[in-house]
């Protein structure tokens, strides 16, 4: 089974034969291992490579595979990075199975299938020999004997020298003395040799098992970096030989998975710095006390529980790192290490902190105990501690904290605990950060005269502490997200305060200002303010940032009394207030205004003379008002780069295309009809959003002019699909994405309203944080993966989990270093709950979330996988010895604990999603999908209340993004709003007690609850010309069409009678054997578009024939109609229930002829022989257009004839690929006022129809008819 060639040209059939497959199926413990050749590099996938497929079991050791393949060793590469040699007893297939199980796969059979997938090689790959990786080619050791001379003159003679290229260094030595250590190590800078000796050698991330022999010849090396390797102890150049470096002072052996401490390292007495973090040590040898010169020792990320007493001999040790170990108390050896001034024990298992122990360590000033299990602080005596100045107690479980005995404390971090009360000494306090607790009281005594920063946000404070009002040097005060009802006068009039954060409280008014204050930043958003102090702008002359959004402001204070204003205000956010046109003149008093947000107010006009004076304006947001025009004087705002004015009544395109710096324009959801554009557009224009303007028609010339714009969003006409009319009844969506102040958008969204042939919908959101590649890959592939998985399993927890895990694998090389949060929502018919029509399954990793609005209340459906919000996940990452940096990021990379991609952070970062399922009811109004930035600035309740009464889902999504930006979001923000209309009043099937008419009965009009806004199609959700963020239904249907069967069930009864089937709607589909079988193939013909999605191509509607309240509405089942009996029946209505012979059950032969433009349509029985249609290619080209499903729609000039296909074709194409579904008899839907007229016409026609078969001459006189595939 040896295969030569690139792995990209191999397929399953060429790798597995039937014999091998049968052998694998017999036992799930069997599988295969792919062995790659050494030439298989990431950059040379097209080169010839030696690939072998080895069948084995989970018990097969590496030694047995090596013997069978003639190899000395096997090598394992994880995530395209490091390569390590497998031990002979290690079992390769078991390694693969364990890896997949840790990712999240549960089913042994599925694990076996995934292990055989060659795409797994991007995460886990075996080699028969050690490969050469392209990213390490610059560090490959090259050696040889060359003629070398010093200098360029003739005086310098050439001499033979041994030259070794090691990393970025050139090692030169004489051939004779190369073993004696006489050599020069010269660095290479820009490819040239720099004439100086180098003392530092960096061999990190090189998959080394031993140090290259050449390095031992040099006595100049003082620092050796062997980080991220697989160093061994007993090899010729192993760790036990490092003592040969006589001048070595610094050694980095972190992330080598040593397991045991290399004792011989303790003989390198010259060491001053030693890094042994993340090596799996459980204890330290006593010999470590021999390193008397050691000054820095890093032991983070191990399993240490104690430190040896001999460590106290290291009197020069000034830095000791033991974070993320298993210590349950502070080691006593700290008392002997008098040079240490810091205790760094983050991520351990301390539950009790004894301040008496710290009192005995007078040399310790900094204590870092974040991310422990602290619950209690013990005070042995009243003796104060005069030495500790900094303490970090973040992310613990403290309920009360009394550190008043630490009289020298300058800085305290105690965020994300469960504190109710906090007591501190104020003698030396400079910084206090205690956000995200449950504080009701904070006591500091005496008044902290040195305090400069106080952060008490996200607590339960009802008033600002009195001592904070008396702090004379306080510059920053953050008391947002509390229960404040008033602001003390002393706070606002402070002569030192420069930043005041009062948002998300219940403040009703701000005190009046008497004196000038130095305040620069004021945030009072989300309060109940009705007015701002009249003297705010005249007394706070340094104020440059003001956010008063989400209040009840009706007016604004004046900027100043004089003609020339002294205001320095630059950023003004007034979104979501009650401001009217009267506030606009006040804005003129702020000539330096750069950013102005007035969204969601009650503005009707914006005076042109006022806008003319805001010459420094760079960003203007006027969305969600009632504006009809944007003043022409906006052309004077020469620095304007962003204009957001969606959801207004603007009918005239503003004159903004002449602005030299314009970049982003959002005029969606308005009433634009035309655009007058100049001959040339500004080169800076990058994003133009015109979606939701239903009356806007862009000419080809205009589109050509806009062709250079990076992102052009316009409405697209919805493609004719078979299920669009069905699903649009129950859900519609809108999408909004905004880049904020970043130069690229790293968010992508997925929206498929007609998923799996219209029986469901899929919505997703992907946030790559800093990369845009992975979100777009997931956007393109995840729906296809879901479609495959739902065909393999009906359990939502299974197919959703597998969708995420397979998508994680399909990211390939891009997912090795990059990662993305992912959220996927799948709506499908509910088969488990008979009382519900649809079920919603939500899965997510990372920080994207989905919220369901049920009865006006938010119902969170997702879980945030971050270190700060998920304690269980944080503990899992800590147990696996990841290093969590001070900014709460795993290895300094990401705050997420689960995401797609970032495979190199395995096993700390996993792709297994959180999954929740709920049955949709009539109370479910809408679904909101958002990324991290959206939910950081909007609560669930506020988001739901903001969009509940917005008719258009696109406008709703735009509103959420606008609110987030006005509330302080500067990052990428994305929102998707899905309107749901799930209710039994939308049901039209008999099981709900609706009376179904007979063949001549009359149907009542179905009323749809809260239909979506007709002027904005759901497809126009913000992506058109750019990389599409929404998939067309035809793309999905093309993949699932093959799953439907074209074999029609033949019902043969001895009595010759067929029972009348129960009529079902899409809310209650008929149960089928397959997961994605098509709905019953019935068609409702109308003047504009049939319900199966096929256009009738009428430019003018047929008079008197309309759907849903029309004069004639005909339903025909192409599978189950009985054409032969209808031919033989004297009237159409009397014998419509008669059965047909079995041989004629496959097709029916009807014609529908409209006699004139006034009369109703008549259903005529047509003989099969008479109505045989011409289906030549020429006919298709001349009279029809090709649709995406392969059907042909005739382009006749009028609707004089509509005929149903005479026989279902045998080929698996089009809509005949559906299985047979029993349908009710053909029927008319006729208004009662025309009932008598229709009956009379039918009676006359049936009585006048000749019984004998017409002759050939008569047959040629029939009008031309066309076959329309249903």
UniProtKB/TrEMBL annotation:
Bilayer topology term: Peripheral membrane protein
Keyword match Nucleus: yes
Keywords linked to the UniProt accession: Cytoplasm, Hydrolase, Leucine-rich repeat, Manganese, Membrane, Metal-binding, Nucleus, Phosphoprotein, Protein phosphatase, Repeat
Cofactor dependency: Mn(2+)
Pfam families attached to this UniProt entry: LRR_1, LRR_6, LRR_8, PP2C, RA_3
Biased composition annotated in UniProt, kind: Low complexity: 1016-1044
Listed transmembrane segments: none
Localization, UniProt: Cytoplasm; Membrane; Nucleus
Sequence segments annotated as region (Disordered): 1005-1103, 1215-1270
Entry EC no(s): 3.1.3.16
Composition bias type Polar residues, residue spans: 1069-1093
Compositional bias (Basic and acidic residues): 1239-1252
InterPro entries, per the entry: Leu-rich_rpt, Leu-rich_rpt_typical-subtyp, LRR_dom_sf, LRR_domain-containing, PPM-type-like_dom_sf, PPM-type_phosphatase-like_dom, RA_PHLPP-like
GO cellular component: cytoplasm; membrane; nucleus
Segments forming domain PPM-type phosphatase: 732-980
Classification via PROSITE patterns: LRR, PPM_2
Enzyme category, top tier: hydrolase
General function of this protein: Protein phosphatase involved in regulation of Akt and PKC signaling. Mediates dephosphorylation in the C-terminal domain hydrophobic motif of members of the AGC Ser/Thr protein kinase family; specifically acts on 'Ser-473' of AKT1, 'Ser-660' of PRKCB isoform beta-II and 'Ser-657' of PRKCA. Akt regulates the balance between cell survival and apoptosis through a cascade that primarily alters the function of transcription factors that regulate pro- and antiapoptotic genes. Dephosphorylation of 'Ser-473' of Akt triggers apoptosis and decreases cell proliferation.
Name this polypeptide is given: PH domain leucine-rich repeat-containing protein phosphatase 2
Naturally occurring in which organism (per UniProt): Suricata suricatta (Meerkat)
Gene: PHLPP2
């Amino acid at each position: 089974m040896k295969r030569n060639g690139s792995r990209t040209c191999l397929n399953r059939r060429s790798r597995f034969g039937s014999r091998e497959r049968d052998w694998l199926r017999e036992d799930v413990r069997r599988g295969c291992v792919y062995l790659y050749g050494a030439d298989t590099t990431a950059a040379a996938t097209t080169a010839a490579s030696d690939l072998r497929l080895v069948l084995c079991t989970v018990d097969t050791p590496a030694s047995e595979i090596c013997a069978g393949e003639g190899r000395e060793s096997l090598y394992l590469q994880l995530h395209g990075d490091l390569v390590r040699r497998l031990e002979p007893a290690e079992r390769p297939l078991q390694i693969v199975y364990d890896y997949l199980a840790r990712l999240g796969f549960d089913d042994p059979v599925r694990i076996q299938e995934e292990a055989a997938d060659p795409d797994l090689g991007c995460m886990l790959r075996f080699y028969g020999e050690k490969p050469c990786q392209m990213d390490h080619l610059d560090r490959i050791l090259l050696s040889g004997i060359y003629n070398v001379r010093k200098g360029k003159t003739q005086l310098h003679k050439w001499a033979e020298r041994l030259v070794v290229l090691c990393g970025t260094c050139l090692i030169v030595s004489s051939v004779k003395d190369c073993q004696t250590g006489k050599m020069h190590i010269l660095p290479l800078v820009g490819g040239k040799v720099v004439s100086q000796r180098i003392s530092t050698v960096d061999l990190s991330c090189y998959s080394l098992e031993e140090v290259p022999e050449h390095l031992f010849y040099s006595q100049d090396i003082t620092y050796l970096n062997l980080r991220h390797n697989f160093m061994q102890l007993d090899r010729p150049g192993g760790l036990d030989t490092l003592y040969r470096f006589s001048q070595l002072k610094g050694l980095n052996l972190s992330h080598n998975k040593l397991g045991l401490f290399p004792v011989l390292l303790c003989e390198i007495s010259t060491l001053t710095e030693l890094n042994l973090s993340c090596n799996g040590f459980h204890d330290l040898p006593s010999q470590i006390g021999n390193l008397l010169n050691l000054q820095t020792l890093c032991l983070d990320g191990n399993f240490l529980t104690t430190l040896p007493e001999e460590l106290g001999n290291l009197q020069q040790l000034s830095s000791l790192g033991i974070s993320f170990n298993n210590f349950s108390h502070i080691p006593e050896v700290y008392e002997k290490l008098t040079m240490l001034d810091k205790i760094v024990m983050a991520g351990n298992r301390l539950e009790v902190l004894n301040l008496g122990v710290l009192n005995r360590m007078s040399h310790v000033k900094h204590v870092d105990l974040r991310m422990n299990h602290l619950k209690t602080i013990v005070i042995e005596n009243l003796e104060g501690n005069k030495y500790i100045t900094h303490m970090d107690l973040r992310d613990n479980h403290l309920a009360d904290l009394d550190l008043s005995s630490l009289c020298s404390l300058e800085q305290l971090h105690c965020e994300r605990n469960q504190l109710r009360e906090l007591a501190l000494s104020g003698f030396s306090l400079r910084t206090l950060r205690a956000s995200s607790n449950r504080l009701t009281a904070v006591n500091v005594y005496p008044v902290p005269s040195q305090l400069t920063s106080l952060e008490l946000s996200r607590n339960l404070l009802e008033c600002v502490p009195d001592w904070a009002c008396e702090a004379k040097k306080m510059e920053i005060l953050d008391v947002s997200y509390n229960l404040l009802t008033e602001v003390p006068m002393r706070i606002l009039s402070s002569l030192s305060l420069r930043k005041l954060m009062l948002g998300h409280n219940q403040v009703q008014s701000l005190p009046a200002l008497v004196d000038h204050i130095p305040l620069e930043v004021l945030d009072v958003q989300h309060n109940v303010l009705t007015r701002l102090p009249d003297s705010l702008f005249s007394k706070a002359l340094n104020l440059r940032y003001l956010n008063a959004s989400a209040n009840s402001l009706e007016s604004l204070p004046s900027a100043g009394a004089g003609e020339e204003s002294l205001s320095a205000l630059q950023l003004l956010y007034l979104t979501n207030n009650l401001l009217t046109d009267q506030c606009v003149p006040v804005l003129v008093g702020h000539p330096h205004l750069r950013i102005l947000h007035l969204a969601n107010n009650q503005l009707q006009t914006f005076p042109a003379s006022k806008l003319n004076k805001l010459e420094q304006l760079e960003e203007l947001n006027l969305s969600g008002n009632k504006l009809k025009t944007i003043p022409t004087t906006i052309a004077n705002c020469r620095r304007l780069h962003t204009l957001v004015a969606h959801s207004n009544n603007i009918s005239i395109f503003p004159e903004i295309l002449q602005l030299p710096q314009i970049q982003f324009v959002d005029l969606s959801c308005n009433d634009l009809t035309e655009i007058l554009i100049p001959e040339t557009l500004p080169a800076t224009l990058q994003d133009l959003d015109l979606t939701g303007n239903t009356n806007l028609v862009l000419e080809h010339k205009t589109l050509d002019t806009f062709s250079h714009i990076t992102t052009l969003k316009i409405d697209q006409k919805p493609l004719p699909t078979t299920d669009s009319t069905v699903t649009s009844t129950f859900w519609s969506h809108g999408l909004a994405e905004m880049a904020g102040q970043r130069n690229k958008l790293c968010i992508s969204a997925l929206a498929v309203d007609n998923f799996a042939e219209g029986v469901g919908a899929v919505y997703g959101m992907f946030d790559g944080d800093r990369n845009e590649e992975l979100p777009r890959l997931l956007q393109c592939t995840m729906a296809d993966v879901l479609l495959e998985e739902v065909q393999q399993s009906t359990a939502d927890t299974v197919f959703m989990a597998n969708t995420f895990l397979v998508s994680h694998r399909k990211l390939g090389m891009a997912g090795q270093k990059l990662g993305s949060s992912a959220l996927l929502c799948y709506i499908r018919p509910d088969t488990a709950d008979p009382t519900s029509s649809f079920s919603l399954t939500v899965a997510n990793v990372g920080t994207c979330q989905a919220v369901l609005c049920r009865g006006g209340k938010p119902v969170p459906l997702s879980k945030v996988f971050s270190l700060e919000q998920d304690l269980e996940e944080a503990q899992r990452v800590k147990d696996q010895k990841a290093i969590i940096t001070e900014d709460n990021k795993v290895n300094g990379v990401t705050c997420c604990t689960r995401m797609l991609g970032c495979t190199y952070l395995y096993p700390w970062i996993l792709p297994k999603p959180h999954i929740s399922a709920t049955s949709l009811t009539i109370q479910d109004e809408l679904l909101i999908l958002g990324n991290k930035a959206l939910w950081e600035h909007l609560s669930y309740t506020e988001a739901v209340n903001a969009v509940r009464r917005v008719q258009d889902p696109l406008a709703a999504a735009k509103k959420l993004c606008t609110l987030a930006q006005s509330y302080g979001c500067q990052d990428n923000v994305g929102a998707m709003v899905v309107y749901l209309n799930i209710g039994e009043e939308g049901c039209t099937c008999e099981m709900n007690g609706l009376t179904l008419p007979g063949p001549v009965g009359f149907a009542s009009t179905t009323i749809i609850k809260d239909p979506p806004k007709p002027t904005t199609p759901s497809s126009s959700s913000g992506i058109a010309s750019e990389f599409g963020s929404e998939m067309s239904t035809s793309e999905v249907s093309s993949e699932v069409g093959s799953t439907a069967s074209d074999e029609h069930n033949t019902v043969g009864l001895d009595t010759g009678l067929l029972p009348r089937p129960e009529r079902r709607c899409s809310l209650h589909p008929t149960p089928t054997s397959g997961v994605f079988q098509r709905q019953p193939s019935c068609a409702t013909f109308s003047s504009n578009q049939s319900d199966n999605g096929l256009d009738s191509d009428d430019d003018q509607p047929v008079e008197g024939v309309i759907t849903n309240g029309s004069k004639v509405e005909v339903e025909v089942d192409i599978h189950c109609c009985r054409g032969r009996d209808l031919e033989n029946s004297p009237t159409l209505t009397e014998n419509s229930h008669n059965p047909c012979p079995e041989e004629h059950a496959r097709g029916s032969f009807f014609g529908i002829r409209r006699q004139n433009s006034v009369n109703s349509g008549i259903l005529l029985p047509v003989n099969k022989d008479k109505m045989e249609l011409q289906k030549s290619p020429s006919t298709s080209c001349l009279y029809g257009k090709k649709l995406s499903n392969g059907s042909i729609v005739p382009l006749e000039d009028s609707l004089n004839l509509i005929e149903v296909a005479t026989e279902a074709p045998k080929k698996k194409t089009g809509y005949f690929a559906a299985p047979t579904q029993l349908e009710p008899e053909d029927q008319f839907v006729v208004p009662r006022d025309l009932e008598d007229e229709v009956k009379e016409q039918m009676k006359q026609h049936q009585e006048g129809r000749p019984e004998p078969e017409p002759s050939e001459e008569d047959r040629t006189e029939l009008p031309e008819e066309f076959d329309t595939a249903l």
